[in-house]
Fold these 2 entries.
Entry 1:
Amino acid sequence: MRSRFEHDRQLTTRMVVTMFLLGLVYVAFVAALIVLLKSVVLVVVIAAGLLAAQYWFSDRIALYAMRGRIVTAEEQPQLHGLVDRLCATADMPKPRVAVSDMDLPNAFATGRNADHAVVCVTSGLQHRLTTEELEGVLAHELSHVAHRDVAVITIASFLGVIAGLVVRFAFYSQLFGGRQRDQNTVAVLAAVMAVSALVYALSFLLIRALSRYRELAADRAAAMLTAKPSALASALTKISGDMARIPTKDLRTAQAFNAFFFTPALGRPGAAVAGLFSTHPSLERRLEALAEVSAELGGPGRGTP
């Protein structure tokens, strides 16, 4: 899908490389498991079915999990007005618009392509941001749809689940399958565990690296489209500060969707090592990148709108 969002060749390259590497990892993974466990084919078939369901129904799954609902222009005229204006500016199809009745200030985009995309904001986000700040957040989410990284991150994130499913299946099939647990059985189980753990670790790091870069790409694209990087910087600062006031229980409930959120619900990146495991760059890194965009546009970098 072509749009007026700034094209990011690095993001496209990273998505292609990540999916290629993940494909290699999982081909090797399946081959190794077929050698170790003949019954693993059933698990792979089941996992493939789950992946297909996740791909085709990712928008419905995400909305259900986040208690979101599709809203009409009559119900949310301001929200629809902002999305209409941004889509017209970006020359892209308008996605469906949804609202989640959660106090957690956040937003996300989901869907396998532009024709089946949904942009969802929480009521907590609407209550906390000014119109220009909300516009910046919506532009950020729309850029994910335009860049097609929503579908890529959906598929990539789900692949890591396969390793865990195989481990559980192998363990319980050996535990309750009636086989005598001799040294050979124990060795097979250990090999399966080791291979699965390695696959999960490699997938985890690849997905996190892609996720962090796609957030920076979306920040830049949104700032360039709206020509208001300071509004997006203000929204980031405000949301990050207010997140600390949200009950930990609510944050943990939403943590599974961190990779899709505008800002992480829990687990802010800190030290360099911790940053490797984060779905988002640090707030400081995102503000620095927006300041660079502001300098390109010839305006203030971190001021309020």
Note: The mean pLDDT is 79.
Entry 2:
Amino acid sequence: MGKPTSIKTTEEVRDRLRILAAERGTTITELLEELSSRELTEPEREQRAYEAARELGVDYSEQARRAGAEAWAKVRAHQERPGGAAA
């Protein structure tokens, strides 16, 4: 584990984090570690996309990257619609 540090936030956010951590039987620090590990950074997403394309036998070109980004945007748009159905 790294050296402890402080994060400035509002009292409302701090209180919410405290409640969420208590509900999970953990600490705010452990909760933040879990939450931060769920999201990939842009370089991590690019690396995962490259690896997935390689496994599929696809050349990860700029065209493939754009096509993938457009496909995921469409998936997210459908997920955000009530009932997940197309409009």
Note: The chain is about 65% helix and 0% strand.
